[in-house]
What does this fold into?
Amino acid sequence: MKTDEIENLETIKRLTTSCLSTLKPSKDKSKVHIAEIRVYDYYELATVVRHLLKLCIVALDQDSAEVPSTVKNQSIDVGLILGIALQLFPIDEFELINEISMMFPVGDKCEDKQE
It folds into this structure.
């Protein structure tokens, strides 16, 4: 292997160690990965789940577009849901892709792209 290729591989290894952080492998051998969200307590977790469920109800019933009247608090905290989505957004992984793309610049088209 050429020296440049070895250096590139070492750089990619270092970057993957520091940038692949959104998914963590489970401790068992199931090959499943874990994405975690951070909450202050069980109440906040319950609130997140309730708002997700309400949002899904509204999405499923677009004609009436409202949470059923049997649900006491019908408001949906979209900001809370977006905050959770931001926690799950793999920004570190995009940094890795960016670094690799700078190491291996390509033209306008991907050579392996299938049409």
About this structure: The chain has a mean pLDDT of 81.
